[in-house]
Amino acid sequence: MATSVMTAMFGGSFDPVHLGHLHLVHTVVQTMNYRRFIFIPVAQNNFKRSARLAEAHHRLAMLQLSFEAYERLYPEDPPLELVTDACEIERGGVSYTYDTVKHLYLQYSVKGRIGLVMGDDLLGDLPRWHEYEALKELVSFVVIRRKPESAVFSDLAVDLEYIDNTVYEDSSTAIRKACSVLQGDERLSPSIRALMCEEVADYVQQYKLYRT
Question: What is the pTM of this model?
């Protein structure tokens, strides 16, 4: 029988995954007992429905490369299980978090509740999420800061765990914007490469991602 592991779910576009994502995992590890992190790349961003994402196989490949780099970047962290689950990509379109959480409980041996990592900028809309009343019974919300001041949430029945993380700029947007003006075999600038682990930066360069 598989050993139950405290598990956190980390959803997003990961277009591309950058050092801020990895540092967030490190911050959670330093303050909480989650030892499995399941990254869930979206098929379509529910909050930016007009956004065009890189092909799923590229985003999945870059996530795997970032996992391989993690131990080098944070050698003092305890052993972690970093995995991707393509359930939302396979489902297609906009997915509901409630459905994804149910899928994870069926697929993984989870100790306690799944930790659902989310930004504090989404707290205000949380009660309007699909199957919110059922969802809040299934997960602990691990709330990361995306604004200088954390939002206040009033539902006392919700299990909220606030993380005192460094607030990063939107590195994915900066990377895509910088790549969009490159021509032919033109190289990424050192300042843009520095936003990603070396392996992901090399991948973006090799496949000329995000160029128009």
Answer: 0.93
